[in-house]
Specification:
Elements (H helix, E strand, L loop, with lengths): L2 E5 L4 H12 L3 E8 L14 H15 L3 E5 L1 H17 L6 H20 L4 E3 L4 E5 L5 E5 L16 H5 L1 E2 L7 H10 L21 H5 L8 E5 L14 H4 L11 E6 L22 E7 L4 E6 L7 E8 L3 E3 L11 E7 L7 E7 L3 E11 L6 E6 L2 E7 L3
Parallel strand pairs: 1-2, 1-4, 2-3, 4-7, 8-11
Antiparallel strand pairs: 5-6, 6-18, 8-9, 10-11, 12-16, 13-18, 14-15, 14-17, 15-16, 17-18
Helix pairs in contact: 1-2, 1-6, 3-4
Length: 386
């Protein structure tokens, strides 16, 4: 029997995770994290942390396990939210959920659990953990292809995995719901949370305006004919760079409230109509405060064949698979959550890591994480440079 601290959030997934561990005979303790107090930018006042805490206590009482609360909001602000603001200020689009798992759930929260004498920390993530014959821990996709959350854990290391348990990773979401209903858990019918990890569903521009000022600028449309005379370069460095536009390359079609509030591939929030096809953001310039747009989901300015990860941002979940300088290897890669895995070659050089895809990719976004897999196992990840 192990002592296991479960991060109970007030949702159905973590509730069932705790229940299953209790049924297996473990010494289970619930620990609820308070990571955010500010309501600025939240779209709804419902689903506050106080509501979550009430539900978490009801779940613990039903399962018959002790539960306590820990306030990690200061660590969350400095290690996740400040990073988020800083990245948006640079015109990049961070993934706070990946950072939350690396910096909070499996670092600060893990340490709190270990202080309580825990052998392991468990969460309600839809992913699985394994161990290979050499003792390396494996991060595997969840059994439910529609809920697999391995991508969000792509920055975990071997030590963090050694202490992590994912009790519902081998289940489908409907099975989790049924277990909750069959055991009369208070969270059985609760909807899944949405939005930024621990902040909730927010109006992003309003949320970001806590530190990033709104500033009017031009929306410039780039037409398809812009690319008619452009000769495509085939070298890695050129293929991994996005198109660079200037205002003279297109025409003004509207105004925005700040280039740092927009991200590549974005459609909503442009407020520009009268076009044959929908407009998408194809580039931003935070220094000149310009947003560039193009018509159509497959607009050429959003498509490219490769991306680059700086040497300082390469992370290997499986260090024994690390590519040495001059090596290359085929992997399956995704550049955003829920994207189907894409075939690609990873090429390592002295500067970092190039990922060259078999097919052109839409809306490769700086600041997001690229994660690479071998079959169902997540091997490594890194921040997209530009």
């Amino acid at each position: 029997m192990s002592k296991i601290v479960v991060g109970i959030s007030g949702g159905v997934d973590s509730s069932v995770a705790a229940l299953l561990l209790k049924q297996q005979g473990h010494d289970v303790h619930g620990l609820f994290m308070v990571n955010w107090h500010d309501r600025t930018g939240t779209i709804t006042s419902s689903c506050t942390w106080e509501d979550d805490w009430d539900l978490a206590q009801l779940v613990a009482k039903k399962i018959d396990i002790p539960i306590s609360l820990v306030d990690l909001s200061e660590s969350y602000r400095t290690r996740v939210v400040d990073y988020l603001f800083d990245e948006y200020a640079k015109g990049r689009t961070p993934n706070p959920d990946v950072l939350c798992n690396r910096e909070i759930k499996f670092d600060v929260f893990l340490n709190e659990a270990l202080k309580k004498g825990a052998d392991f920390v468990a969460t309600g993530h839809y992913c699985q953990r394994g161990v290979d014959k050499n003792g390396f821990y494996k991060l595997l996709a969840g059994a439910d292809p529609n809920k697999d959350q391995s991508y969000f854990l792509c920055q975990l290391n071997q030590y963090q995995l050694s202490k992590a348990l994912f009790p519902i990773g081998d289940l489908l979401k409907p099975e989790v719901r049924k277990i909750a209903l069959d055991n009369n858990l208070p969270t059985a019918q609760r909807k899944d949370s949405q939005g930024i990890c621990f902040v909730g569903k927010v109006d992003l521009p309003v949320f970001l305006q806590q530190k990033l000022a709104s500033k009017k600028g031009d929306i410039i449309e780039i037409e398809s004919r812009y690319f008619e005379n452009i000769i495509e370069n085939t070298d890695l460095k050129s293929q991994s760079k996005p198109y660079r536009f200037s205002p003279k390359d297109g025409k003004k079609v509207g105004e925005h409230g700040g280039a740092h509030f927009y991200t590549i591939g974005q459609r909503k929030g442009l407020n520009v109509g009268g076009k044959l096809l929908p407009l998408f953001v194809v580039g931003t310039d935070v220094e000149q405060n310009v947003v560039y747009v193009g018509q159509g989901h497959e607009f050429k300015g959003m498509m490219r064949k490769a991306l680059f990860i700086d040497i300082s941002e390469i992370h290997w979940v499986r260090p024994d698979f690390e590519l040495r300088i001059g090596e290359e290897r085929r992997f399956l890669v995704r550049i955003r959550y829920r994207q189907p895995l894409q075939k690609a070659i990873l090429i390592r050089n002295e500067e970092g890591l190039y990922i060259v895809f078999d097919e052109y990719q839409r809306a490769i976004t700086p600041g997001q994480f690229a994660a690479w897999y071998l079959n169902e196992e997540l091997i490594g990840s890194g921040v997209i440079f530009e």
